[in-house]
Amino acid sequence: MERIVGGSARLALMNLTDNMHVSGEDLGEIGAQVSNATQAITARAFIGQHQPLPLPFDPAKLRGISEKLIRSHWENNYGGAVKALNAVEQRLGAMLREKDLPPYIYGDVKREELVRSGSVVLHELYFANLGGQPKPGGKVLDLIKQWFGSYAQWEDEFKKTANALSGGSGWVIFANNTHTGEFHNYWAGDHMHNIPTGLPLLVLDMYEHAYHMDYGAAASKYVDAFMQNVNWEEVNRRAEVLSKA
Predict the structure, then answer these.
(1) Tell me: the pLDDT tens digits for 174-217?
(2) What confidence tens digit (pLDDT) does each residue in 96-152 have?
(3) Please, are residues 200 and 175 in contact by the beta-carbon 8 Å criterion?
(4) Which end of the chain, N or C, is less packed with Cβ atoms under 10 Å?
């Protein structure tokens, strides 16, 4: 059965039964296993065909964040996460065909699926909320004032949370906790661990690859630069979608 690695079920079945005597019962079992293998290959969950989204802004026009850094970040870190997620999904599909595979081995790859999925999603949200004018307004400003008293107080806490992650890794996510209905700036130490049921409105990447090329260890300067490049129109669009939902 190890020879079943892809192609149509009929072709795999013909290859298996060539030059060998197979009983009707065995033939049925082989056919079932071929069918299962084919399903694992073609199931949408395992096709691994994600494509990176293009940058939604001109990276040469950001203030205080270089085009070189943005392009490197997009290509190597985000692009690398997309490629890794594709490889992981395809590997999971292949592993489903390994009848005696220990669950803990499968679990290791499932963990990688969570890591890569989180990285892809958060990077896409991060790039989408860059490249605008630093002037919040509309629904999102109303929410900020409602939950933080003022924009200044919200910004102070958002930046404090970001600077708490400097020198390490993680994300700051201003999000709606749909379980409680609350809005908070959430600290996330990596791609996997963030608020359950949270819907992000604004995402800040605090991994060193997001700023080291421009600022070295001076992460707080990067945080200040980020705040000068937030696309508040996009953040407000997310808030409006949330309010309608």
Answers:
(1) 999 999 999 999 999 999 998 899 999 999 999 999 999 999 99
(2) 999 999 999 999 999 999 999 999 999 999 999 999 987 899 999 999 999 999 999
(3) yes
(4) C
Residues of the chain with CATH 3.55.40.20: 62-245
Fold of 62-245: minor pseudopilin epsh fold (3.55.40)
SS (H, E, C) the chain: CCCCCCCCHHHHHHHHHCCCCCCHHHHHHHHHHHHHHHHHHHCHHHCCCCCCCCCCCCHHHCCCCCHHHHHHHHHHHHHHHHHHHHHHHHHHHHHCCCCCCCHHHHHHHHHHHHHHHHHHHHHHHHHHCECCCCCCCHHHHHHHHHHHCCHHHHHHHHHHHHHHCCCCCCEEEEEEECCCCEEEEEEECCCCCCCCCEEEEEEEECCHHHCHHHHCCCHHHHHHHHHCCECHHHHHHHHHHHHHC
Burial of 123 (0-12, 13-18, 19+ CB in 10 A): buried
Q: Report pLDDT for 15.
A: 43
Q: Are 229 and 63 in contact (CB under 8 A)?
A: yes
| In contact, 12 and 24? CB cutoff 8 Å | no
